[in-house]
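Q&A log
Question type: sequence-to-structure
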Amino acid sequence: MDNVDLDVLRRLAQWRREGHKVVLGTVTRTWGSAPRPIGAMVAVRGDGSIAGSVSGGCIEDDLSDKARAGAWPTDVPSVVRYGVSADEATRFGLPCGGTLELVLEPVADHSGVEDLLDELSQGRRVLRRLDLATGRAALEPASDRADTLSLTASELAAIHGPSWRLLIIGAGQMSQYLAQMALALDYEVIVCDPREEYSQGWEVPGARLVATMPDDTVTEMRPDRHTAIVALTHDPKLDDLALLEALKSEAFYIGAIGSRANQARRRERLVEFDLTRDEVARLHGPVGLRIGARTPPEIAVAILAHMTAERYGFHKLEFEAPAADA
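Response status: OK
Response body:
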């Protein structure tokens, strides 16, 4: 789930508090070239108002027309498909003959949307099970970190909440900008800094601060392929401790701030421990894309841009190089 879909749930809840009837649409399957990913959401109000999107706009227009005409599910969820034929794909604006499947769910008290929002506001990952026969939803903790959604003849099961994690070593000024931006990109953000003089000034709501040693923090997190780790203290005693554990993990992105000369010395230090040259080669240092960034917020943008590229497999970038030599 990304922040766009979280905003859909918030708008949906507001509409219901105002007394409107609302249908929630969730993308459950796609074929061909689909505009929005599986799990994307759209909320449709009884008067045709729309929040969110599942296409370039044409499907939303059709849903809005159906809402105004009263031709939508009123009791229990239903499964609909758009773009099954070439003519329909053209009509609904689906590119390359794509096909989109939606579950349309009339939202009621037993849908549990308010409870879901309460859980998500606390940064939790939640599995929501929707009974297609009754429209009732049940919530339970989600242990799987991957984005998962499954649809059977009887149930839609979807995981909501942050799918990606970012561990930041250091609670300095740059970390605050990086944490704020990462939260906007729907990362679960953990900040590690055992230094009291830095942790006392931490003020980023939604980012969890821990005062444990960096290597212990990395070990406890058990980084997977949905985890990024960025070291920003400028203190080798802290940054290198985190990197020693991070570079042996499955984390998809590992970076450290510092000049090229400092990074070269860091790499030599790391291979003196139990890391191989291949493991050390995974380190992005200096961290981020080289886009001329100088200020802390600009460097944070460069770091998140590089993380995004790695996350989606864009490894060959025109500007791929360190962002900051500070």
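Response note: Residues 296-311 form the longest helix (16 residues).
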